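Self-study notes.
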Amino acid sequence: MFKKIAIMGRHEDPRVSEPMTVLADYLAQAGIEVLAAEDMSLAIAATRIPESELADAADLIIAIGGDGAMLYAGQLARRGDLPLLGINRGRLGFLADVTPEEMLDSVGHVLAGEFTTDKRLVLEARLERPDEPDTTALALNDVVLQRRETGRMLDFVTRVSGRFVNTHAGDGLVIATPTGSTAYSLSCGGPIIEPRLDAVVVVPVAPHTLSDRPIVIPADLGIELRLLERENTRAEIMADGHSMGEIRPQDRLLVAASETRLTLLHPPGYDFFGILRSKLHWGHDSRKRDLPPEDA
């Protein structure tokens, strides 16, 4: 099924390079052609090609690292519409859900065709400027309006399907997919959305009024955002942590569900709620901890 597999990750990190070397040897012994970026300095048995060509040459990408590595690999995977498997060597690992201890067993299951596919929603953002070409970007996690080089809050307007929603005052706004609902959106008070839902969450960042709350909407409804004129304020748009540039009052940001979806592979036993329990420490009673001595 998978004859050519690309391996990616921050190989300079020993936590990544060690399992990457083990995995490359395992795949080679299984008769799989291993592909890697030509500028990777790690000495593994792999066919080296330009990173930009990995998506066209591979049948599967395996990313080793944290969710940041998965987001980076996902940018390549979307170009060729090929599946992505993640080995977690980061901190949280909502996307890279296979542990290093399970790596070889999990990859063995995938090579044997024992896996489930998970199509993840991707956002398409377009920043329209009246005097410049449009800037576009895809985001698996989120599109964010944030303050830039200023301590002053922002005033901005949101519309959904052309209908006025609200005039906001605060530090910004997060527009997140179900995948991104466990990232920046969660830290801003947004809800966790089960990945199979075709929905988007819109979350104000540090709103000036307590009534400005997160809202979940169908993914097929387009979102429009405009910045209002306010003295000494600047703002920019970020897509999965990468800047799309500054947004000004005369500009318009449009965010909608992309026709592109990212395909994740999960070996047997994948449990989204189990991952939540593990990563968010649900069920752990913080009151059951050792107390300091009375004379401390």
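Second protein, same conventions, sequence then structure:
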Amino acid sequence: MKRNHSSRRHFLKTSAATLGAAAFGRPLILSGAEAASTAANSRLNLALVGCGGQGRSVMKGLLAGGANLAALCDPDQAMIEKARADALNSGGEATKDAQAYEDYRRLLDKASSFDAVLIGTPDHWHAHLCTVFMKAGKHVYCEKPLTHSVAEARRLRELSRTCNVVTQMGNQGSASASLRRCTEIIRAGALGPIREIYHWGVGVTASEGSAAGEDPVPPGFNWDLWVGPSALRPYKKDVYHPFRWRSWFDFGNGGLADICCHAINLPMRALDLSYPEKIVINVHDGKQVAGKAAVEFHFPARGRLDPVALHWQGSGLPPADVLQPLVEVYKDKIPGGLMILGEKGCIYTSHWNTGGLIRLQGEPRLKDVLHHEATRAIPESLPRIGNHGQEWLDACRSQDKTKTFSDFDTGGLLTEIGLAGVLGLRTGKNLDWDGEQMRATNAPESARFVHTEYRTKWLS
């Protein structure tokens, strides 16, 4: 394998220094001989940054797909040891020799030892880590949502278009045959005009600020580094780490940010959705308005496609008529998920856009979308991969950026859509949203959530 030998200081100076309230700055792009290069049949040397549960889970899949674990990086030594054990149990070759790093900057000092990076950290670290590793010429797989703020997502989208590396956001349902078949059916017009979409079973709220009190930081855990670009606060056991960070706006933005890149994935692709033009918030003083979805995304018409309203239910359930097709299948145990309603029929999927069910007018009940006689003639236009991580590995080996279905440009747009709803929640009002300009024309106070201010101690 041909690897990049640029020093950490060389590419960090053009990114971390500009990470304050402003943009990342004009990107330094490594290309040609400087960029990551992997032979089609070679084993990809992988670094895992962020060794929590999700990072370890994805890592195991990539090792099974032929990657070689070269390095582990996490501020918590206990997480590193869990990842090493998981890798060994997965049969990863040379795992016992994988180097361990507390600080990602020390890993960057050894950039020649790895070809690609899996980022499984909390959301507030995603944008910076993706940026520095992409600029180092490394292929990057990053868990969803791609970033913690709208402006970060936009910058990574722009960087990915010019950076000579393969990217993939970790919304694994993208690879499912269900999502791809549902997309083909909807694009073919089988459901007729679609104006309403409902999602339920996932809340939206998170907490501002920090928890009261303080506990001793566990040995081997660099709490200051874990907090990283966010505002420092005292460590509190079982409040932020591990995983509970999702419930704090400073780190994870709550349930909407967690699941938006899964649930909105199919509608965005099938209906050519881009930026919503209006966000309606039905949560006030922490309480959701009865009979209303917590967040409504209103998308404008797109050519011959009608305007669409996507109702993110939050607590409670959608109207009974929306759920009626599911009652016939699940009785009183209706699972959460997504319902796309058209004039000629409907499609239901899980939160991850898997397990798709379809019912057209005149049909008695929902049927498996993969075995639906009435839509059998609609051709398959999307490739069938079945494994999101394998798709990324194969693209890294072939150097073909077009082979990933959820690259940072696509995943970044999906992240922007979902985080526009988070903006409304944090601002506490309906937003007239200008997605191209990343601003709410009726709520300038929302700008502080669009462009995040960073604590720079760990960014250089």
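Instructor comment on the second fold: The chain is about 30% helix and 15% strand.
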